[in-house]
Amino acid sequence: MIIKHRIEDYPKWKPVFDEDASRRVKAGCRGWQLFHGLDDPNEITILLEWDTKEHATRFIESEDLKKTMQEAGVSTKPEVHFFEKIEDFSV
Known about the structure:
The chain is of the alpha+beta class and 91 residues long. It contains 4 helices and 4 strands, in the order βααββααβ.
């Protein structure tokens, strides 16, 4: 799953995101990677791997997540996309 949104302030957002890690893992998240825009560090993209799409959907639609995002200073509605990895390549 990829989530993209704007945040007000990275130093405010990051500790809240980190504190929510155990809830993500308990919900079925297997790991994540964070990215921010090179030209705009308040544009955040999160790549998350989940055990099932159903668990990911339940998490992203939860009221707890909405409250957490508001507390963290997320300033736009998240753009969410689901993907299935079909290949992994590294050099």
